[in-house]
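General statements about sequence and structure are easier to judge against a single worked case. No coordinates are needed to read the tokens, only the vocabulary itself. The sequence in question and its structure tokens are set out directly beneath this paragraph.
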Amino acid sequence: MDVNEAELEKAATKIQATFKGYKVRKDVKKDDEKPEEAASAAPVEEEIDIDLNDPQVEKAATKIQATFRGYKTRKVIKDE
């Protein structure tokens, strides 16, 4: 599988942004704060709303996971 570095980086950024947005929303809900108060307390970051069921996002996550598993396997073989 040919891994394009730009595609891999874009996919990782997309997944990370989605998770960060999810975590912030969860924290705000947990603390029962108004969104304005939470936004003023935390540094402002661009939030990207991504559908986690989107086939492109799933494909990106799969590509990242496969690349990491390959890296991990090669490292184990090298260390043996």
Q: What stands out?
A: Helices lie at 5-31, 35-41, 55-79. The chain has one domain: 5-34+53-79. Residues 5-34+53-79 form one domain.
